[in-house]
């Protein structure tokens, strides 16, 4: 079968030390026009179990792998991705339908994640503990170290497949854990290629290729991976509903969840309205709105509502819609027709419930147009849930305090932002907004891959960013040593 892309790796799935045949294949199509991109192998629950078995057998080898070997493998992977970055960018455009500008950013961030994880290998250390704070600890030496948690299962979403996979596998390797990656069924291609490069880098430094494996497939493969008792941790990025089910089914295995959101941007009465409007456009429509921290809800203080809406209308003309392969495009087709129809129906339902459609709301040539809604009532999906499309909803309130209350009424809590000229307002927002990150005078979608990233409430548990993910994927082991057994003191208090 021919298509727009020739797979740059062996056929089959990377399981164990080789590539094994998959029971079937599936076609990946370019979301923008439906053209065939490539055929991809589809795994099975049996292959998932085989991958876990192999990873479990490598636990001790992975944990004892020297730091310089782990660092070198990650550094070499980053080098290989950088050499082929333009090919990665095009492949990401073709399989996700995401605009080229966003795919270029994704590759940049992937490189940062890989190199930062390599650097963090040198920072895996413990501390001494003053055990003699109790009399029973006199004469004892105490220290703790970090040990790998074991086999890691990493499940990535379709919107940023390369980046999300790197946030699973790079910290796992840095921590000394074997890892099995499952990409989203819609977008396996770039992740397969990344895993191939990692495995080749591992082999080049004398480590087993099987430290990183990949199994494609649907829910049956996901269940087989996440419910296996030999798994030490599951790291999942995706919808809240699926994440919650994984957490229930995987118990008592540790689960790290990066889930959805409906991120809010607050516009205070003293805000730079042009900057705020620009942020809504930049932050609401990048990746065609398919980002969990894109701007979805805009809460504006009433005094500046009309001026803000005027500024926003002027900036909407900047949103270029079209072929995602063009560097100018900012909004293109969503991942599939079902997603497009869902977003369109949410907008239609919100308008029927009393919201005002300012612009967009329709689908042209398969592309959901950039949409602005006013005064969406509570209880509407376009306000309460995650749209995951190019839709921004604006509402006005009497004060910043009321805006913070509106932000916090959501069941989600990933990122939010506030535009203000007041330090007092900024710190009040940081103190009171219930999210994993509060951004002042910038889009809520700002994320540096070195920072701790994650949510509260239904937006998940745990933190990503190489340093913080490595901490999540290791456990402390306490060492308590009495250097000599001679002349032990009589205990003065219970141990």
Please write out the topology.
Blueprint: E1 13-15, E2 18-20, E3 24-29, E4 36-42, H1 45-57, H2 59-63, H3 67-83, H4 85-96, H5 100-120, E5 127-129, E6 141-148, E7 151-155, H6 161-175, E8 179-182, H7 189-204, E9 212-214, H8 219-226, E10 231-237, H9 240-250, E11 254-258, E12 264-267, H10 273-285, E13 297-301, H11 305-316, H12 337-352, E14 356-359, E15 363-364, E16 367-368, E17 371-374, H13 381-384, E18 391-397, H14 400-408, E19 415-419, H15 423-432, E20 437-440, E21 460-461, H16 466-472, E22 474-481
Parallel strand pairs: 7-8, 7-10, 8-9, 10-11, 12-13, 12-19, 13-18, 17-18, 19-20
Antiparallel strand pairs: 1-2, 3-4, 5-6, 6-22, 11-21, 14-17, 15-16
Helix pairs in contact: 1-8, 3-5, 3-7, 4-5, 5-6, 6-16, 10-11
Helix/sheet category: alpha/beta
Strand content: 15-25%
List the quaternary state of the chains: single chain
CATH-defined fold name of the largest domain? Aldehyde Dehydrogenase, Chain A, domain 1
User: If you compute it from the alpha carbons, what radius of gyration comes out, rounded to the nearest whole angstrom?
Assistant: 24 Å
CATH architecture of the largest domain: 3-Layer(aba) Sandwich
Number of domains: 2
Which whole number gives the mean pLDDT? 96
Q: What would you give as the CATH superfamily of the largest domain? A: Aldehyde Dehydrogenase, Chain A, domain 1
């Amino acid at each position: 079968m021919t298509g727009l892309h020739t797979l740059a790796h062996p056929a089959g799935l990377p399981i164990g030390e080789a590539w094994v045949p998959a029971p079937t294949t599936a076609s990946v199509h370019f979301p923008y026009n439906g053209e065939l991109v490539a055929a991809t192998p589809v795994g099975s629950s049996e292959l998932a179990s085989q991958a876990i078995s192999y990873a479990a057998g490598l636990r001790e080898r992975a944990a004892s792998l020297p730091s310089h070997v782990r660092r070198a493998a990650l550094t070499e992977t980053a080098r290989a991705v950088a050499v082929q970055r333009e090919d990665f960018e095009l492949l990401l455009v073709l399989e996700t339908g995401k605009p080229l500008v966003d795919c270029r950013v994704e590759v940049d961030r992937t490189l940062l994640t890989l190199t930062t994880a390599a650097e963090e290998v040198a920072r895996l250390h413990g501390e001494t503990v003053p055990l003699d704070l109790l009399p029973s600890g006199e004469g004892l030496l105490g220290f703790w170290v970090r040990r790998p948690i074991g086999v890691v299962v990493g499940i990535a979403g379709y919107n940023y497949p390369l980046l999300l996979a790197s946030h699973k596998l790079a910290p796992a390797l840095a921590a000394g854990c074997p890892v099995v990656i499952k990409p989203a069924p819609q977008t396996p291609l770039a992740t397969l290629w990344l895993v191939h490069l990692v495995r080749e880098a591992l082999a080049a430094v004398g480590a087993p290729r099987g430290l990183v494996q990949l199994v494609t497939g649907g829910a049956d493969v996901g269940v087989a991976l996440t419910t296996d008792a030999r798994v030490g941790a599951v790291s999942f990025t995706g919808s809240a509903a699926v994440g919650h089910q994984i957490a229930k089914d995987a118990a008592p295995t540790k689960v790290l969840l990066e889930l959805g959101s409906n991120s809010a941007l607050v516009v205070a009465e003293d805000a730079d309205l042009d900057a705020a409007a620009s942020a809504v456009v930049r932050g609401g429509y990048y990746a065609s709105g398919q980002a969990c921290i894109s701007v979805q809800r805009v809460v504006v203080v009433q005094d500046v509502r009309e001026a803000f809406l005027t500024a926003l209308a002027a900036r909407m003309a900047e949103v270029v819609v079209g072929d995602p392969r063009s560097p100018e495009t900012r909004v293109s087709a969503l991942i599939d027709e079902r997603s497009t129809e869902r977003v369109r129906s949410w907008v239609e339902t919100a308008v029927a419930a009393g919201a005002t459609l300012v612009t967009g709301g329709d689908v042209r040539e398969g592309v959901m147009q950039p949409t602005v809604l006013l005064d969406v009532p509570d209880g509407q999906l376009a306000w309460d849930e995650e749209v995951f499309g190019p839709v921004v909803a604006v509402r006005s309130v009497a004060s910043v305090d009321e805006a913070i209350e509106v932000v916090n009424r959501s069941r989600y809590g990933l990122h939010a932002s506030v535009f203000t000229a007041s330090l007092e307002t900024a710190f009040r927002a940081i103190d009171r907004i219930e999210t994993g990150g509060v951004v002042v005078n910038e889009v809520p979608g700002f994320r540096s891959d070195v920072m701790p990233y994650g949510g509260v409430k239904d937006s998940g548990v745990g933190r990503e960013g190489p340093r913080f993910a490595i901490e999540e994927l290791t456990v402390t082991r306490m060492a308590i040593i009495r250097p000599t057994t001679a002349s032990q003191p009589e205990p003065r208090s219970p141990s």
